[in-house]
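Support reply, case 0932

Customer input (verbatim):
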Amino acid sequence: MSVFERQTLDNGLRLLTASMPQVASTTCFVFLAAGSRYETPETNGIAHFAEHMFFKGTERRPTARDIGMAIDGIGGEFNAFTGKEYTGYYVKCASEHQGIALDVLADMLRHSKFDEEEIDREKGVIVEEMNMYFDTPRDLIGGVYDDLGTSRRGWSSASPAGSTATSRPRSSASSATSSRAARARRCRCSRCRTGAARA
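Our regenerated output:
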């Protein structure tokens, strides 16, 4: 018997479950096939930008605070991350609150508002996060190494295979005034949290 069970729903959604009855907690994950490997030069960075925006408010939970309170109210934690091939969103909580966790995740991913004011504010956060990437040699050299690997496989840096930016983004007024600690308080993604811990 396998530890994991895979089902495909009528709408094509693949559901992977791992029942662990001896554990009193649950982790609900949603993975999307969205990352830099699937982006074109015109859409470069959109998966990571969307990852940030999904936390900013929905029709039922209008603000980031409302979303946070829904998860904090069940003693849970939530976060997200963007990689080259996928973006993941998750909630960890007590098993009895699994329904709420799934409801919040589905609400964030299906009913986000993408408010214009929040979009403009988030642009500065993303630019500052990119600058932080360039200020962290371990992260930067990893990206350079990835770029070398993609060119050897026949992918150009402008291909959907994705690559790391090789020049710093231009600063904006909002990003120039944003500190790493302030960004980490606003952003729940693992990159911002990790960067703030190093700052």
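We compared this against your earlier run and they match. Two observations from our side: Helices lie at 46-53, 64-72, 98-111, 116-134, 137-152, 173-176, 180-186, 190-198. The domain at 5-113 is CATH 3.30.830.10 (Cytochrome Bc1 Complex; Chain A, domain 1). Please reopen the case if you see a mismatch on your end.
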